[in-house]
């Protein structure tokens, strides 16, 4: 990629970030926040959303959750969802599904980035 293309991509990313922050800023202002508080909250909210998306797509460890086991679910209602647990030796995770049934996820030997994959039981 040429230097001009890199600069163009960087400018587009910065513009998207700015507009997302600006729209959230307006929403906070409409809710009655002061200018400084609304601007600070909007920047933090957009930065956290960007970090959440990067963690979800790449599987890198979330720096906000140091010391916790990062888990990616495969299959079922929680497909590709990321969760964090204190116990690093977990083998099975039981979660209540959206229709009030219990979903059983079993640990696999695979990883996605630094995230351990738990697959729904019964799926092959």
Globular, elongated, flat, extended or rod-shaped: what is the shape?
Answer: extended
What sequence of helices (H) and strands (E) makes up the elements? HHEEEEE
Instruction: Identify low-pLDDT runs.
Output: none
Radius of gyration: 19 Å
Any idea how many domains?
A: 2
Number of strands: 5
What would the average pLDDT be, to the nearest integer?
89
Percent of residues in β-strands: 25-35%
Biggest sheet descriptor: 5 strands, mixed
Distance between the ends: 41 Å
Helix percent band: 40-55%
Number of helices: 2
Strand arrangement, major sheet: 2-1-5-4-3
Estimated structural class: alpha+beta
Oligomer: single chain
Summarize the structure in words.
The protein has two domains: about 5-60, no CATH class; about 65-120, no CATH class. The protein is extended and about 50 Å long. The N and C termini lie far apart (about 40 Å). The chain has helices at about 5-30, 35-60; strands at about 70-75, 80-85, 90-95, 100-110, 115-120. The protein contains two helices and five strands; from the N terminus they run H-H-E-E-E-E-E. Strands 2-1-5-4-3 form a five-stranded mixed beta sheet, with no helix packed on it. It is of the alpha+beta class. Helix 1 (about 5-30) crosses helix 2. Strand 1 and strand 2 form a beta hairpin.
